[in-house]
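Researcher: Next sequence.
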Amino acid sequence: MPDLDYLVIAPHPDDAELCVGGTIALLKAEGARVGILDLTDGEPTPHGSPEIRQAETFAATQALGIDWRGNLGLQNRLLQPTLHARGLLAGMLRDLRPRILFAPYWEDAHPDHVAASALVDAARFWSKLTKTELPGEPFYPHRIYYYFSGHLRQHVKPSFIVDISAHLETKLAAVRCFHSQFIAGRSTAPPTFLDEVRDRARYWGWAIDAVFGEPFLCREEVGLRSLRDLT
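Model: Next structure:
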């Protein structure tokens, strides 16, 4: 497996597209190596199935043009930061060796998102351990940046906002691939779910004097090597 610059860890297929899709497209346009690791298959859902979700995930992966995608095989709805899950994820981090991780913000209405956030934190630490039965060589991702889901309607002040103005349509194309999750069974009267995705991106773009944006939070301080790209 290739060394990655960035790895988005998502509780379910569609979380990466929905929360980080514009940033992924921007990073790929800049030549970065980007991967997505889904922790579960996301099923069951009202309009989905494992086969449908797999096909949708493949289409979204193609839309984003990422370098690698995998699934850790944990159980949807029962996701927990167990020692077993921690070992599986730490082993993947040693294999993929991403410099930066993206993970769900630790407060959310969806228990899987809360569990996934804790799991990423713990696995990041475990991945650097020596004298362990984990596969591969010790490795410690440099930073974790946390993305926000819409399950809990809160307004957390982000550490930074990424300008995705040139990449919103790529994000929306990837989100549309998950028809069973975001289109089937939903009202077609405006504002549709996709209208809401665009509106949230417009708000975060407005906050930094851009057209569209995606917010992120970091527990550690975020440093800059240049002021050139500040908006």
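Model: The first helix runs from residue 15 to 29. The mean pLDDT is 96.
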